[in-house]
UniProtKB/TrEMBL annotation:
Species annotation: Methyloversatilis universalis (strain ATCC BAA-1314 / DSM 25237 / JCM 13912 / CCUG 52030 / FAM5)
Protein name, entry field: Phosphoribosyl-ATP pyrophosphatase
Localization terms from the record: Cytoplasm
Gene name tied to this protein: hisE
PANTHER family associated with the record: HISTIDINE BIOSYNTHESIS BIFUNCTIONAL PROTEIN, HISTIDINE BIOSYNTHESIS BIFUNCTIONAL PROTEIN HISIE
This enzyme's EC code(s): 3.6.1.31
Amino acid sequence: MIDIEVLRRVAQTIAERKGADPSSSYVSSLFHKGTDAICKKVAEEAAETIMASKDGDVGHVVREVCDLWFHSMVLLAHHGLTVEDVLHEFRRREGISGIDEKRSRTGG
Ligand SMILES: N=c1c2ncn([C@@H]3O[C@H](COP(=O)(O)OP(=O)(O)OP(=O)(O)O)[C@@H](O)[C@H]3O)c2ncn1[C@@H]1O[C@H](COP(=O)(O)O)[C@@H](O)[C@H]1O
């Protein structure tokens, strides 16, 4: 099994790209373009993930979800957030049924 450390390493590389030359780094070029460009890539990759799912090609699904996670990590870094913040949120939610959580919000 591949360990989740790869996410931390990629997140570290993304963070280091903040001050890098946009002509030599794709991540730096996204930071340079700003919020709209980063959000556009996240939306594109989400749409491509949906299309891959409809294709039924599982390898394609994996590649598109990887693109989606990667661009979401760029978005997190753009907001000064990290993979750790998302992992903490997963930990907080762990074991809480989505049905119970919704009921606690809506009272239904
Ligand atoms: N994981 C990735 C990663 N996944 C996807 N991509 C790039 O994301 C881009 C967008 O993907 P698309 O499928 O939309 O391709 P496209 O149509 O050519 O994209 P656009 O022209 O619309 O931007 C492509 O250029 C991919 O190469 C990535 N670029 C970088 N990384 C990681 O980020 C690190 C830093 O990258 P640099 O900043 O480029 O050094 C790398 O070492 C990797 O670990």
